[in-house]
UniProtKB/TrEMBL annotation:
It comes from Sparus aurata (Gilthead sea bream). Pfam families: RINT1_TIP1 (PF04437). It comes from the Eukaryota. Belongs to the RINT1 family. This is RAD50-interacting protein 1. Residues 21-31 have a biased composition (Polar residues). One of its GO terms (biological process) is endoplasmic reticulum to Golgi vesicle-mediated transport.
Length: 798
């Protein structure tokens, strides 16, 4: 009784199904009287005439419905025809119906509020008397509708039985194509019932569909496996040279193509009914569902023997199932992919193309094998979260597998490999933790190593421009290896987490270098101190290059778009805007800290160098410049004996710095040293003494012929880095007349404070420029002129 009730419920649902025809009773238009009683009498007589009082005559309801439906269609056609030929009549009928409806509504409203007239009450009384007839007619029409839905439900069941019988008959006569077409018809019927709400009917249809689909698939799979066996599938060893084809190879190829085509057609008829041993094992919750359509049915069947081999060797208590050896099953799957590629491209791919399938047979096989590996890796990774060494080994092997899969097997980038398994929260966090732990341990060992501060390329001049110590180079190699590991991850947010780890490691290494530098700061001219400076400069240079690298620029854009707090925290709106426009880089903060450390170390180094040079220059500063004989009294001029210690010290320090500092740092060092030495000589030698003619000439000889050439090895015009000394020598070496004129010009300029732009007159600046003096101001030139003893003597004589 309950089953009957469910059927009744489902039959009732057919009424609202989109495919259910609208049941209408189309009677002759002249039979409809304006009198309601005549209408009821006509309908009752019509039904008694057609059906009678015998309940068994209800079986004719279907024929009656068909007849009424046909009459209804005829009337609809007439209405359409009349609407085009006699529009006023149809329009008038519609208008009358609308007016009647409005009148009825108005009548009901007046009855409700007690404002009906006498005629209105008579109409209402008439309607009330006709109500039982209308109710009876409605019930009878509902019964007709119910019977129609029962008939449709039964026709669906009959159709299912007919298709099921057809499939059975086709299989008995080995008409596989006809059986597949019958299954396809069932699938179409199943699709049509999706919105009907007849769940029991649809379940019955789906069970029948799956039943026959499995029988056909099993029969085709059995035949397909036999053909594959004759073709020596699966190919688990590297294929040898092409063998002589067997006598029946054409027949085998024909059978292969027929079976593959039939399996593809079967899959197309019922794509949701694919159940193979390949997916019978439970999949780990870590592995997300694979993207893309399901594997084509022939490939699934071809994967079955490989799947059984994989599960036999790499599951259970087999020795080959070792957590410490993930490379065993990863390498095995890559070998299967490589060994089977020729067979797939030569045997299966042409059949797929002739069948109109656009997928690659080789890629489909790789997808199937990859699903086995994904399940295995997801299972192993969750078991290795508490073993750092084995976990690291698994990650390394997965990354190597992914690389070979994409490069050697040409697996499409749009399809997932294994990397998405490493992005699960627990696994990714473990990876970051282990990466940091091992990097810190590596930093400790590299800084404490015996050759940490020596360059491994020190004997190869062409490769040692940066003179990076071994610890710095090892550290940057470590960062580069980390980059290569996470570069291929398919998730930008995960990549940014690794970038944040790299920035943290760089800052940690900078702090360690600072600590070592402070220990060596007592001897800034030592080899280790300079090696630390080289290390800072090397890291600064590499990070600067990374800031312009396309990969890191893409990460920079991802950081801005994702709003990564870890990387953008503390930055203002302007700074974030600069990053978005690629004007800055994610390493700017680290570069600023490294540049400041480099500047501090370079300043300390030059300070100690100048302290040593100044100590050696004390005799030169105290030389008797005023009493030196004129150059005309000497046969040849030579370097002042008091300047020799200073010159030797400058030479030795330049050579030493050139040997221990990188090229870019040495450029900064000698230029900084030249600037400091220029100020020292100007302040402590020139401005602190008075010069005779011979003293000025000796000073100029010492500078231009001895000091400047020491820096000439590193630039073409070293005198440009000693502007104060060079211009002071020019002023001190002027002949007497020019010196007096220049002094008068400068004095008058100071006293009168007027312009010297008149014709024939020279301004002080123009006069100095003519002499080659651009750096010194007029007041400084006057001071230098007053240091000349013979000008002072001339002034006293005047």
């Amino acid at each position: 009784m309950a089953a009957g009730t469910e059927v009744e419920i489902e039959v009732s649902k057919l009424k609202d199904h989109p495919s259910n025809p609208v049941y209408t009773t189309s009677l002759d238009s002249e039979s409809f009287s304006t009198d309601a009683e005549d209408q009821q009498d006509y309908v009752v007589k019509y039904l008694e005439k057609e059906l009678g009082s015998d309940l068994k005559s209800l079986k004719n309801v279907g024929d009656l419905l068909e007849k009424l439906r046909e009459e209804n269609n005829v009337l609809e056609g007439q209405v359409l025809t009349v609407s085009s030929s006699v529009p006023p009549k149809v329009s008038e009928a519609l208008s009358t119906a609308a007016d009647a409806g409005c009148s009825l509504v108005d009548l009901l409203q007046r009855e409700k509020y007690g404002t009906c007239t006498l005629d209105d009450y008579s109409v209402l009384k008439y309607l009330q008397g006709a109500q039982p007839w209308m109710d009876n007619l409605g019930q009878m029409l509902n019964q007709v509708d119910t019977i129609g839905r029962h008939m449709k439900y039964l026709r669906c069941l009959q159709r299912i039985e007919e298709l099921s019988a057809a499939v059975q008959q086709c299989l008995m006569t080995s008409s596989v194509w006809e059986a597949i077409r019958a299954v396809d018809s069932m699938a179409v019927l199943d699709t049509g019932l999706n919105q009907s709400g007849c769940f029991h009917l649809q379940d019955f249809l789906q069970e029948t569909l799956h039943f026959w689909h499995k029988i056909i698939k099993d029969r085709l799979a059995s035949d397909f496996e036999k053909v594959l066996t004759q073709l020596q599938w699966p190919i688990v060893t590297p294929p040898t040279q092409s063998l002589t084809p067997t006598a029946n190879h054409q027949e085998i190829n024909s059978q292969l193509e027929l079976l593959v085509t039939q399996l593809l057609a079967l899959q197309t008829s019922y794509p949701s009914g694919l159940f193979t041993e390949l997916h019978q094992q439970p999949v780990s919750s870590v592995a997300p569902p694979s993207k893309g359509p399901p594997l084509c049915l022939p490939i699934q069947i071809m994967l079955l023997p490989l799947s059984r081999r994989f599960r036999y060797h790499f599951y259970g208590n087999r020795q080959t199932n070792s957590l410490s050896k993930p490379e065993w099953y990863l390498t095995q799957v890559l070998m299967w992919m490589s060994n089977s590629s020729t067979f797939m491209e030569e045997k299966i791919q042409p059949i797929l193309e002739r069948a109109g399938v656009t997928t690659s047979a080789r890629v489909e096989l790789c997808r199937g094998l990859l699903s086995l590996v994904q399940e295995k890796v997801a299972s192993d990774a969750s078991r290795l979260l508490y073993d750092d060494m084995l976990f690291c080994h698994l990650v390394e092997e997965v990354l190597q597998f992914e690389k070979e899969l994409r490069c050697n097997q040409s697996y499409p980038a749009v399809l997932p490999g294994l990397l998405h398994l490493l992005l699960e929260d627990a696994i990714l966090q473990k990876w970051l933790t282990v990466e940091k732990k091992m990097a810190v341990e590596k930093m400790d060992s590299m800084l404490s190593a015996e050759g940490a501060w020596s360059s491994q390329y020190k004997d190869i001049s062409d490769m040692d421009e940066l003179k990076a110590p071994d610890c710095a180079e090892t550290f940057m190699t470590l960062l580069q290896v980390i980059t290569e590991r996470y570069r291929t991850l398919p998730c930008p947010s995960a990549q940014l987490k690794f970038l944040g780890l790299q920035r943290e490691l760089v800052d940690d290494f900078r702090i360690r270098l600072t600590q070592v530098m402070k220990e060596e700061s007592r001897c800034p001219l030592g080899v280790r101190y300079c090696a630390i400076l080289n290390a800072v400069n090397y890291i600064y240079t590499i990070l600067g290059d990374w800031g312009d690298n396309v990969f890191f620029l893409q990460l920079q854009q991802s950081a801005v778009s994702l709003g990564e707090e870890m990387l953008l925290g503390g930055l203002g709106v302007m700074d974030v805007g600069r990053l978005a426009s690629l004007e800055g880089s994610l390493f700017e903060g680290l570069l600023a800290l490294l540049d400041r450390l480099k500047g501090d170390m370079m300043g300390r180094l030059l300070e100690w160098t100048m302290r040593e040079i100044a100590e050696k220059a004390k005799p030169y500063c105290q030389d008797r410049w005023l009493s030196l004989p004129s150059q005309y009294d000497l046969s040849t001029m030579s370097l002042s004996s008091s300047a020799c210690p200073m010159m030797l010290c400058v030479r030795d320090r330049l050579l030493n710095l050139h040997q221990v500092l990188s090229l870019s740092l040495f450029q900064l060092a000698w230029q900084g040293l030249a600037e400091r030495l220029d100020n020292f000589l100007y302040q402590d030698v020139i401005l602190s003494n008075h010069f005779s003619d011979g003293g000025a000439a000796q000073l100029q000889f010492d500078m231009t012929r001895n000091l400047f050439p020491l820096f000439g090895h590193y630039c073409k015009r070293p005198e440009n880095f000693f502007k104060h000394v060079k211009e002071a020598c020019i002023i001190l070496s002027l002949n007497l007349g020019s010196a007096i004129l220049l002094r008068n010009l400068l004095k008058e300029s100071e006293e009168e404070m007027r312009d010297w732009a008149g014709a024939g007159d020279l301004s002080p600046q123009s006069a100095l420029h003519e002499l080659g003096v651009y750096c010194l101001a007029s007041c400084d030139v006057l001071i230098l002129l007053n240091l000349r003893a013979w000008i002072n003597t001339k002034k006293e004589n005047v």
